[in-house]
Design goal:
The structure is a single chain. The chain has about 350 residues and is α/β, with parallel strands linked by helices. The chain has 2 domains: about 5-120 and about 305-325, 2-Layer Sandwich (Nucleotidyltransferase, domain 5); about 130-300, Nucleotidyltransferase, domain 5 (2-Layer Sandwich). It contains 9 helices and 10 strands. The protein has a 5-stranded mixed β-sheet with strand order 3-2-1-4-5, with helices on both faces. It has a 5-stranded mixed β-sheet with strand order 8-7-6-9-10, with helices on both faces. β9, α8 (about 280-295) and β10 form a beta-alpha-beta unit. The chain is globular and about 65 Å long. The chain binds 5'-O-[(R)-(carboxyoxy)(hydroxy)phosphoryl]adenosine (KG4) and zinc ion. 5'-O-[(R)-(carboxyoxy)(hydroxy)phosphoryl]adenosine binds near residues 142, 144, 169, 173 and 190.
Length: about 350
């Protein structure tokens, strides 16, 4: 099955990153991402601007991905693209481009679920990184998603928990906004958290049944806390920034780990993988290592370039579907609310 030389181009445009990647069998030859800095001044992604930037970026990004892989488009066996979930205007750019290219080259088109991409990124061949065995639990944590998924096989997945409001990355970014930090604030909060006392301030964890998450109450609690404290001392934030960040991080990581523990207990699964931009967080990485000691978990964190939004994860899913000859129909459409 793996003896053939299969080249697949993956295209990702679900949110604010335009990305393209070439995969040769299970190995990534190129992984190009054009980030859109335009959103920084707005403190969040502006959909209208995102789709416009995708249109500007898509041709150069694909061109670069092919050049870096040192192949021509005529050597491709299929085009894989993100069908959803995501922002409709953003998805339409990648979908239409992928369709046209596949049609022009007369090769198969393969639609990919972005969330499955985050999870199946663990199956890219990378030296020093192990692939999780089935079944495993995958927690996808980013600015757009927070899910726990039971992965029985590549395309046999079940969402067993998800956020009922904000995503965990949003909790970081919105807390950062309250503290006057730049966007996205996750990395900065993480950096400062490592210098502060995690127990300096206490924020109550939300009470959500089962394996679901909620982060909007935490954001409000932080807002009220900061408003109250700065009334008493206008320099409160500056004086306590590291402790505030450490306390926020401690609360957020506590919420994530509580749910993972429960998911592992309920399913009896001890192989735990994470994905999405928040996987870069030092707190979650340390907590997973602790889990290996305390609960006998085996944990999997993908290489950094495959955790944030990227097209390599779309290309690997494309490759797995190609092996199954699971191709898209020519009338396939983008789906902003696509489910796993
Ligand atoms: O996966 P990603 O690049 O894009 C999507 O949102 O899909 O994730 C970006 C999110 C942002 O919310 C950012 O603040 C957060 O990931 N993030 C972090 C860290 N690095 C990125 N959050 C906490 N700690 C980090 N080190
Ligand atoms: Zn994502």
């Amino acid at each position: 099955m793996h003896s053939e030389n299969i080249y697949i181009l993956g295209i990702e445009s679900s949110c604010d990153d335009t990305a393209a990647s070439v995969i040769h069998n299970g190995k990534i030859l190129s992984n190009v991402v054009a980030n859109q800095s335009i959103h920084e001044e707005f403190g969040g992604v502006v959909p209208e601007l995102a789709s416009r930037a995708h249109q500007q970026n898509i041709v150069p990004v694909v061109h670069q991905a092919l050049a870096k892989a040192n192949i021509t488009k005529n050597q491709l066996h299929a085009i894989a693209f993100t069908r959803g979930p995501g922002l409709m205007g953003s998805l339409l750019v990648g979908t239409s481009f992928a369709k046209s290219l596949a049609y022009g080259l007369n090769i198969p088109l393969i639609d990919v679920n972005h969330m499955q991409g985050h999870i199946l990124a663990h199956f890219i061949d990378v030296e020093g990184f192990n692939k999780p065995p089935f079944p495993f639990l995958a927690m996808t944590i980013s600015g757009g998603h927070t899910q726990i998924v039971k992965v029985k096989h590549y395309f046999d997945m079940e969402v067993i928990g998800e956020t009922i409001d904000d995503a965990v990355g949003e909790a970081y970014d919105k807390s950062g906004k309250i503290l006057g930090l730049g966007y996205p604030a996750g990395p900065e909060i993480d950096k400062r958290a490592q210098l502060g006392n995690p127990k300096a301030f206490k924020f109550t964890k939300p009470k959500v049944d089962g394996l679901n998450f909620s982060f909007s109450g935490l954001k409000t609690a932080i807002l009220y806390f900061i408003q109250k404290e700065t009334k008493a001392d206008p320099d409160f934030i500056t004086k306590n920034i590291n402790d505030i960040c450490a306390s926020i991080q401690y609360t957020i990581i506590g919420i994530l780990i509580d749910k993972l523990k429960l998911a592992s207990k309920q399913t009896g699964i001890k192989h735990i993988a994470i994905g999405g931009g928040v996987s870069a967080n030092s707190g979650i990485r340390n907590a997973l290592k602790d889990g290996e000691q305390k609960f006998g978990w085996t944990t999997y964190v993908p290489k950094f370039e495959f955790t944030t939004d990227n097209a390599a994860m779309i290309a690997i899913v494309g490759y797995l579907k190609y092996l199954d000859k699971d191709f898209s129909k020519s009338n396939i459409t983008a789906n902003a609310r696509l489910k796993i």
